[in-house]
Design goal:
heterodimer; A: 136 residues; mainly alpha; 2 domains; two-stranded parallel ribbon; two-stranded antiparallel sheet; elongated; B: 464 residues; Amino acid/polyamine transporter I; globular
C-alpha cells in the first residue's frame, strides 16, 4: 500500500490561508450586530418619575451599601430596573440544538474516515518517511 | 543555525526545553483563570441572583473537576505541545484536531485581548484617581500584549516563573480580602442576612448564570499546553492541574462569600471590578491597594498564560500542516514557537480594539465549551481504543465513564444557558466553526501527511 504524498504549499498560499481564517473570525464577530440585539433586557413597565430608596424596595442595609458605593436613588434605579427577559423562542432553540448536534456529527464522521487513513498509513504503510512531495 | 532550518521538517532535531515543574503548570493554569475571580464571574449574579451565582460556581466547578480529571489522564499519556489538539489528532482524527486547535487559539487569544483591555482600563482609573482624567487606555493595551509576547519569545521558564509570582500574589490578595472582611463576626462587615435575596428569576435564571459561572475556571485546561516542556509530564501535569482546580474552587467560594456579603446583588451583577469595590466598602486603604495590584497582576498573568497557550496551539497546527507550515518553527536559541507568538500579537490587539467585548468574551467562552464537549467524547474513545493496561498512562482517573458523561451533560446545559443570553452569537460562532471545518476538508487536508499524524509509540487502536 502506497502512502499519500501531500502537496507542498507555496508561500502565497500560506499567506492566503492565514488571512482566510482571520477574515472568517471577524465576520463571525460582527454577524450578531446585524441580527437582533443579543442581550435581552427590558425596562420595568412601571416608569417611576422620581426615585426614592423606598420606591425601589431597598432595605436600610442595602441603602447603606449603595451609598458606600457612591450611588443615589436615581443612579441605583437604572441598575435595579434593568431586568433580563428569559422568554424562549422554541423554533430558535430547536435550530440552535440542530446546528450544534449537526456540527459534532459532521466533524466526528469525517474525522473517523480521516483517522482510518492515518492508522492505515501508520501501521500498514510501506514508506514511513516519504522523501518526495508533490508541488501544488 | 538559521530560523529557516527550524521549520516543521526539522522539528525532530530542535525541540523545546524541558524545564518546567508542577509549580509552573499550576501558575499557567491558575494564572490564566484567576482574573475571572477579580471580574467577570459576577455577571452570573446579574443573570440569576447571588444564590444563582453560587449554584453556578459549584455546578461549573463540577464541570471543571471532570475536565481536570480527564485532562490529567490523557495529557500525562499524550505529552506533547498542542495539548487537547494533539490528543484529538491521536484519538479522534484530523478534522476534530483542526477544530480543537482553533478552539484553543480562539479561546486564548480572545481572552488575552479582554485581559489587556482590563489592564488599560485600570491604568485609566488610576490616572483619573490621581488627577489625570481621560487617559487613553489603548497604548497600555498594546504595551501589555507586546511586553508579554516578548517575555514569551525569550523563553518559557522565565515566562511561567513570572506567572507563578504574580498569580500567587493575586491569590493571596483574595485571601487578604477574606481575612479583612472579618468573617468570624458575621453581621459586622459582611451582611449576608440582609443582602441575600431569593432567586430573582427563579431556576431559569440559575441556568442562565451557568454561562458566566464558567468565568470562575475558564482556561484551567491550558495546563496541557506545557506537556512538551515539563520535566516529567506524568507527575507535573496531574499535580499542577488538580492543584490548580482546588485553588480555584477555594478562590471562587471566598470571592462569592465576601462579595455577596458586601454588595447588593444588582450592583454586584454589573460591577467592573467587584473585588476592588469590596475592598473599597471595607474602607481599608492598604487592602484597596493590595486588591488593585492583585487585579492588575491577575489580568497580566492571564494574558501571559494565554499568549503561551495560544502560540503553542497555533505552532502545533503549523507543525502538522493543518495551518501553514511557516508557523511550525521553534527558535534555535530560545526554543520557543516564536513565529506563532509574533503572529498572534496584532491579532490579539485587533480583537481588543473591535469594541465588541461581549462578542469577544462569548467567542472565548463558547470555544472553551466546544473543547470540553470534545474532551468527554475523547475520553470515552481513549479508554475504548486503548483499554487500561494496553499503554502506559501517567495517571488514571477514577470512576470512568462517570466524569465524561457528567461533563457531556453539563456542557449541554451550558449551551442552553448561552442560548438564553447570546443566542445570535452562539449561532454565528457555530457558523464560523462549520465553515472552517468545510474549508479544512476541501483545502487544508491535502497538505497533511497522513501517517505523520500519529506519533505516539502505541499499538494499533482497537477497532481500527
Amino acid at each position: 500500500m502506497s502512502n499519500y504524498i501531500p502537496k507542498i504549499q507555496a508561500k502565497r498560499g500560506q499567506l492566503f490561508d492565514s488571512l482566510f481564517v482571520l477574515v472568517l473570525v471577524y465576520v463571525s464577530l460582527y454577524i450578531p450586530l446585524f441580527l437582533e440585539s443579543d442581550v435581552k433586557s427590558v425596562e420595568e413597565t412601571t416608569q417611576v418619575q422620581s426615585h426614592s430608596w423606598e420606591s425601589l424596595g431597598v432595605s436600610v442595609v442595602e441603602q447603606e451599601q449603595w451609598q458606600k458605593l457612591g450611588h443615589d436613588p436615581a443612579s441605583a434605579a437604572e441598575i435595579i430596573n434593568n431586568k433580563f427577559d428569559y422568554t424562549i423562542d422554541p423554533v430558535m432553540l430547536a435550530i440552535t440544538a440542530l446546528v450544534i448536534i449537526g456540527y459534532f456529527f459532521f466533524v466526528l464522521r469525517v474525522s473517523n474516515k480521516q483517522y482510518r487513513e492515518v492508522i492505515n498509513e501508520k501501521f500498514n504503510g510501506t514508506n514511513q518517511q516519504s522523501g518526495t512531495e508533490a508541488r501544488q | 543555525m538559521t530560523a529557516e532550518s527550524t521549520t516543521a521538517e526539522n522539528v525532530q532535531r530542535i525541540s523545546m526545553f524541558k524545564v518546567l515543574n508542577p509549580f509552573h503548570v499550576w501558575a499557567l493554569g491558575v494564572g490564566i483563570v484567576l482574573v475571572g475571580e477579580f471580574m467577570g464571574w459576577n455577571f452570573s449574579v446579574a443573570k440569576g441572583g447571588a444564590y444563582g451565582a453560587l449554584i453556578a460556581c459549584w455546578v461549573i466547578g463540577l464541570l471543571y473537576s471532570c475536565v481536570a480529571m480527564i485532562d490529567s489522564e490523557v495529557t500525562s499519556t499524550v505529552a506533547a505541545a498542542g495539548g487537547q489538539y494533539t490528543q484529538a489528532k491521536h484519538i479522534i482524527g484530523p478534522l476534530m484536531a483542526f477544530n480543537v486547535g482553533l478552539y484553543l487559539v480562539m479561546a486564548y487569544t480572545m481572552l488575552e485581548a479582554a485581559d489587556a483591555l482590563i489592564v488599560g482600563d485600570l491604568m485609566t482609573a488610576v490616572a483619573a484617581a490621581t488627577g489625570y482624567e481621560g487617559l487613553n487606555p489603548q497604548p497600555f493595551v498594546v504595551l501589555t500584549i507586546a511586553f508579554l509576547a516578548w517575555l514569551n519569545y525569550r523563553g518559557v521558564f522565565m515566562t511561567l516563573t513570572v506567572n507563578f509570582v504574580i498569580t500567587l500574589f493575586a491569590f493571596l490578595a483574595i485571601i487578604a480580602l477574606f481575612v479583612g472582611s472579618d468573617p468570624l463576626n458575621p453581621g459586622s462587615v459582611l451582611k449576608h442576612s440582609e443582602l441575600l435575596t431569593e432567586l430573582p428569576y427563579g431556576w431559569i435564571g440559575v441556568v442562565a448564570a451557568l454561562q458566566f459561572g464558567m468565568w470562575y475556571y475558564l482556561g484551567i485546561e491550558g495546563t496541557c499546553q506545557a506537556a512538551e516542556e515539563v520535566r516529567s509530564a506524568g507527575r507535573a501535569i496531574p499535580l499542577g492541574t488538580i492543584g490548580g482546580i482546588l485553588t480555584l474552587l477555594v478562590a471562587a467560594t471566598l470571592t462569592w462569600y465576601v462579595s455577596t456579603g458586601l454588595m447588593p446583588w444588582q450592583y454586584l451583577g454589573q460591577a467592573t471590578t467587584p473585588l476592588y469595590d469590596a475592598a473599597s466598602i471595607i474602607g481599608n486603604p492598604s487592602l484597596q491597594v493590595v486588591l488593585f495590584i492583585g487585579t492588575m497582576f491577575a489580568a497580566i498573568a492571564s494574558a501571559n498564560g494565554c499568549i503561551n497557550d495560544a502560540a503553542r496551539a497555533w505552532f502545533s497546527m503549523g507543525r502538522d500542516r493543518y495551518m501553514p507550515t511557516w508557523f511550525g518553527a521553534i527558535h534555535p536559541h530560545y526554543r520557543t514557537p516564536f513565529r506563532a507568538i509574533i503572529f498572534l500579537i496584532p491579532i490579539a490587539v485587533s480583537f481588543a480594539f473591535t469594541g465588541l467585548l461581549d462578542q469577544v468574551i462569548t467567542f472565548s467562552i463558547l470555544s472553551g465549551l466546544l473543547g470540553y464537549t470534545f474532551m468527554s467524547i475523547n475520553m470515552m474513545k481513549f479508554r475504548k481504543m486503548w483499554p487500561l493496561g494496553v499503554i502506559k498512562r501517567g495517571y488514571i482517573h477514577p470512576f470512568h465513564p462517570i466524569p465524561a458523561l457528567v461533563l457531556l451533560g453539563l456542557c449541554s446545559v451550558v449551551y442552553f444557558a448561552t442560548f438564553l443570553g447570546y443566542g445570535a452569537s452562539l449561532l454565528s460562532i457555530m457558523a464560523f466553526y462549520i465553515v472552517a471545518s468545510v474549508w479544512f476538508v476541501m483545502r487544508r487536508y491535502q497538505f497533511v501527511k497522513r501517517g505523520d499524524q500519529f506519533t505516539m509509540p502505541w499499538p494499533r487502536p482497537k477497532g481500527y
